[in-house]
Every structure is written in structure tokens, then in C-alpha cells.
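Researcher: Good morning. I'm working through a list of sequences from a screen, and I'd like to move beyond sequence-only analysis. For each chain I'm collecting a predicted structure so we can compare shapes side by side. This is the next one on the list. No need for commentary yet; just the structure.
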Amino acid sequence: MHRKGTTYRFVSLVVTLLFLLLAGQALAEPVPFPSLNIGVGTSTNPGQVSTTIQIFLLLTVLSLAPSLLIMTTSFTRIVVVLSFLRTAMGTQQAPSNQIVLALALFLTFFIMTPVWQQINKDAYLPYKAGTISQEQAFERAVKPVRAFMLSQTREKDLGLFVSLSKQARPKNADDIPTLTIIPAFMISELRTAFQIGFLIYIPFIVVDMVVASVLMSMGMMMLPPVMISLPFKILLFVLVDGWGLVIGSLVKSFG
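Model: Good morning. C-alpha cells for this chain:
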């Protein structure tokens, strides 16, 4: 104990001396503060202006990446169905929001991999090799995404936004603007997700009704039915391999 006390006092003394030395140096010589200047200057090289604009556009795309991931991929349908599943089971926050979002995100990567591989093959690699221009790469990258969205969009929803845009009637799918396809795709995804959610609710509602009827017949009306039905719903979900059925049905629904 005596050695530990001596060591502690010695370390405290050294730290105090270092602090006093640094304080004295700071008083003797003012510490310089860094400064940052942002301004717009002139440039004689058009390449510098083009590079600056490209960097600005890249930062804009990166800031909009989460929205693009939600609007143009399978993420919307998956996360809505998983939310319905958790609510139907009545497990409150199990699984948590982080787990639901992570599962939806990785399932989105799994489903969208063929589309992104086609973009990488047809657009990114040729652009990286310098065989096509930036505009051509963008056009080639949009085509697989448009094809995916059109395959999952109902004609009724697509016709709704085509009529709302007040444009000429398109002759084929290639004439429909991408900004018209995206909201129609999102509405179709929400409709499909709600349909799947309704089917998920049915077996759990049956369990709740059976438990409530048994409790009423036994005269246990003061006991909350949810407290009794929750273990049975979890048991039913596990016995029928619920996660495999739900995830498998979700993935197959994009086929």
C-alpha cells in the first residue's frame, strides 16, 4: 500500500509539472489557430471547372443514396412486411428496429444483386475503361433499374402517374420518364406489402380469437388475452418455420 501511494504521488507530481510547463509556454508564445477560407476564384483551365462540378454532383448523389435505395429497390416492400409481422405477433420491440432494418437491407442487396451486376458490366466497367462517355454510362445504368421497377409496377399505378404528368400518351415503356416510373413503383410496392401483411395477420388473429374464447368460457375475463396468446403465437411461428416462409415468400415475390 505504501509503494502504491508513493507511485501515485510521483505520477501526480510529474503530470502537474508538465501541465505548468505547457501553460507557461502557452503564455509566452500564443498558440496559432487554424483558419479555413472558402471562396470562388477564377480558373483558366476548363478541366478544373469540370472536375469541381463532378465532385459536387458526386456528393449530391451520395447524400441522396439512402432515398434512392428506398425508392428504386425492393427495400420498401421488405421493411413494411417485416413491420407487419412484428405487429401481428405482438412482440412489441422484438426484433428491434435495427434488426428489422438490417435484415431488410441485406435482403435488398440479395435481391438487387443481378441488377447491380448488370450495371457494373454494361455501364461502370466500360466507363472505367474509357470506351464510353459519362452520359452513355448513365443511360446504360438506368436501363436495368427501369426494367426492374417496371416488372414490379402495376399498369393501373403507372397509368395514374402518366395521366397526372399531363404528357403525351407513351407508345411503349421506353417512352415513360424515369421520374414517372419511380412513384408508380413505390405505390405498387406498398400495395403488395399490405396484401402480404393481411395474409400474415390471419393466423395470428385466429390464435387471439381462440385464446379469448377459452378465457371467456373459463370465466377469466380479467386476464388479458394477449398475455396468454403471445407464447402460443411465438410457438406457432417457430413450429411452421415462420422466418423461412416469410423471407422465402418475399424473395420469390420479386421473381
